[in-house]
């Protein structure tokens, strides 16, 4: 019984050390928003928003080759979910907002950016959240297409 207890304590201690190392590593990297163009976007389903981010280490130096993952919460899509940082530590994403409607009115969208490259043992990653302000467009853009255009007569 004592042997099982010692083994259990050793396993838990080892797991705690591994998790602690990942927590330490995640604190060594920082993701910041460099630019967002435009600053506010219409929720029209087609106007792109360009997000430029920079990944730096604890000394402020750019980090090249890390995989960043972007996940919008609340609607819309990213042109690509994952991208690698360049020599300047920068990564660029394009976000396409959803089309506002009576069921889903225009609202600010949060995009969570995660550095997937710094975690070794567990998924404890450096991350940041970017808020994209959306507004209801002045004019609603309507398509001139109908089902016959899509499927034929």
Structure characterization notes:
The chain is of the alpha+beta class. The protein is built from two helices and ten strands, in the order H-E-E-E-E-E-E-E-E-E-E-H. It has helices spanning 2-26, 147-151; strands at 29-37, 41-42, 49-57, 67-73, 77-78, 82-84, 90-96, 109-115, 127-132, 134-135. The strands form three sheets. The protein has a four-stranded antiparallel β-sheet with strand order 1-3-7-5, with no helix packed on it. The protein has a four-stranded antiparallel β-sheet with strand order 6-4-8-9, with no helix packed on it. The protein has a two-stranded parallel sheet with strand order 2-10. The longest helix is centred in the N-terminal third of the chain and has 25 residues, at 2-26.
Topology:
Elements: H1 2-26, E1 29-37, E2 41-42, E3 49-57, E4 67-73, E5 77-78, E6 82-84, E7 90-96, E8 109-115, E9 127-132, E10 134-135, H2 147-151
Largest sheet: 4 strands, antiparallel
CATH evolutionary superfamily: Immunoglobulins
* CATH architectural category: Sandwich
**According to CATH, what is the topology?**
Immunoglobulin-like
Tell me the number of strands: 10
* Overall geometric form: elongated
Q: Would you identify the regions where 5 or more consecutive residues have pLDDT less than 50?
A: none
The number of helical elements comes to 2
- Give the CA-CA distance, first to last residue: 78 Å
What value does the Rg take, in angstroms?
22 Å
What is the level 1 CATH name? Mainly Beta
Based on secondary structure, the structural category is: alpha+beta
Integer count of domains:
1
Beta-strand share of residues: 35-45%
The ordered H/E elements are: HEEEEEEEEEEH
């Amino acid at each position: 019984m004592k042997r099982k207890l010692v083994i259990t304590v050793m396993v838990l201690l080892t797991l705690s050390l591994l998790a602690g190392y990942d927590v330490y590593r995640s604190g060594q990297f920082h993701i910041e928003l460099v630019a967002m163009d435009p600053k506010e976007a219409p929720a029209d389903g087609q106007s792109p928003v360009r997000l430029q981010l920079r990944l730096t280490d604890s000394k402020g130096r750019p980090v090249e080759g890390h995989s960043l993952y972007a996940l919008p919460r609340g609607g819309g899509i990213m042109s690509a979910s994952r991208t690698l940082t360049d020599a300047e530590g920068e990564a660029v994403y394009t976000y396409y907002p959803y089309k506002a409607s009576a069921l889903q009115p225009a609202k600010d969208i949060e995009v969570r950016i995660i550095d997937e490259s710094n975690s070794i043992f567990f998924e404890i990653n450096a991350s940041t959240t970017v808020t994209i302000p959306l507004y209801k467009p002045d004019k609603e853009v309507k398509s001139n297409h109908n089902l016959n255009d899509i499927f034929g007569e």
